[in-house]
Protein: Cox cluster protein
Amino acid sequence: MSEDAAGTDTTEASLRGPRLVGILYATLVLVSGVAGLLVGVFVDGLRAPRFLFLVPFPPTPLGFAAYGALTIALVLGIPLSLVVYVSRYVDDAV
Structure:
C-alpha cells in the first residue's frame, strides 16, 4: 500500500467509484475479446457473425474476437453511459 503526504491510503482510494467501474468495464471487454478469439481457434464450422445483425465479421479468430469485444462493449457501454449521465446531470430534488 502507498500513502500520500497526509497519510491516507492512495491505493484504496484509486480503486473506488468511476475508476473501478471503468477498470471492470475494460476487463470485461478484454475477456469477451479473448473468449471470441478462443472460440474462433477451437470451434470448427462457424459461420460469420453479424454485429447488430447488419455488419458481417469474417469467421476467423480475429473476427470473433472483434465481434465479442464490440458486442460486450456496446451491451455494457450503453447502460453504463446512461447511469453516468443520470448521476451527473439529473437533479436529486424530488
Q: What stands out?
A: Helices lie at 10-14, 18-42, 61-89. The mean pLDDT is 86. The radius of gyration is 19 Å.
